[in-house]
Amino acid sequence: MIINIVAGGPDELLPDLGQYNDRCIWAGVDRGVFTLLEAGIAPGFAFGDFDSVKPWQMAEIEGRVKDLKRFKPEKDATDMELALDWALSLKPKKVRLFGATGGRIDHMLANIQLLVRPLLENLETIVEIIDSKNIVWATGPGVGKKISLLNDMKYISFVPASASVTGLTLDGFKYPLKDMFVPFASTLCISNELTGKSGTFSFTEGILLVVRSKD
Fold it and tell me: Model pTM?
């Protein structure tokens, strides 16, 4: 099972949502619910305080979404986190987050941090942030993790999401590494590229954000 969640980030950073309409469950967060409706996709679920939605948009949302979970603006978690909590409770194979970048940087940083949640909770679910220029996900230690060439996203970056990453090895990359210690806030592994159709990365401790980007 795959769950797609669309938040209210800038429309110009959204990819074509239709290409991700692959037997998945759709959910909207705040203004992202209306974004889905405008794209011709009727979400089964909606989450938010809807403080960024106009009254006529809210009326349409209420008329077209069956499961609407409305929260007060004064709460201890963002609408996106509450939606992700719901998604993770279903134990899907993957959760894709759209509309989670651009706009307010505090929300964007919080959304990126949410990628680590499954690892902290020992879940097998992969959570990705996808926009028109990037795909980002978090991963834990392992050996020989394969990553394949995407013609429109040639850049691959590895960003520590923990205090450090130990034993990072990159094979099949333009800039290979062997058993490298990478501390938090290092830019060592930004903008690498594959030399062939695929490569592998391995590390022994820590958490990495993997970022695939277009030019």
Answer: 0.93
Residue 158 Ramachandran class (φ > 0 left, ψ -120 to 50 alpha, else beta): beta
Answer yes or no: is pLDDT of 23 > 90: no
Lowest mean pLDDT among 26-30, 31-35, 116-120, 186-190: 31-35
Question: Which residues, other chains included, contact 162 with Cβ-Cβ below 8 Å and sequence gap of 6+?
Answer: 184, 206, 207
Cα–Cα–Cα angle for 157, 119, 90, rounded to 5 degrees: 115
Residue 84 CB-half CA count within 13 A: 28
User: Going from the N-terminus, what domains does the chain have, and what CATH number goes with each?
Assistant: 2-132 (3.40.50.10240), 138-213 (3.40.50.10240)
Cα separation, 167 vs 148, whole angstroms: 21
In the block, which residue shows the tokens 């942030």?
Answer: 129
Mean pLDDT of all residues in 23-48: 91
Tokens representing 4 are: 């797609």
